[in-house]
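Lecture notes, unit on protein representations.

Consider one protein chain, 174 amino acids long.
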Amino acid sequence: IGQVFDTYWLVQFEDKLYIIDQHASQERFFYNSFLDDKDNIQPLLLPFYLNEECDVREMIEKNIPLYEEIGIFIKKDESGALYIDAMPTSFFELKNDVLELIVSQQGNIENIKTELYARAACKKSIKSGDRIDYDKAVELIRKVFAMPVARCPHGRPLYVELTKEKLYELIGRT
């Protein structure tokens, strides 16, 4: 039907009206694509040094193989300082987030992976107030209805649906 508030798309399908959140929907799409893309790891031109405390340093060193599973390669220089040597391209804008999550999650690789991919997807997605053209909207809407999980990585629904009967009830029609 169209876009409202430069944030939501209204779509009628059969006897239902869907209000689709464009940001949450694209965020889920990017999140899924990041999870599926195992070949996007790139070496950094300049290493990203980790300024860690002694107790955290031991935890980081112990978990280096876990970080490598999600494409974060941590090395040690001649002085013993730890640095990130390579990471997925989707994390390039999130270097400080990578460090913060490595330190705060204490080796919980699933939490780190989920949160980093969610943050990367959020940054890359259409924002509330962004207008998108009709063709891009149609493509996004098709992807929304093909997704097995109808929630963004942060847990918000991609859409709400309103049946014809419920709409009639809300308006006072019988």
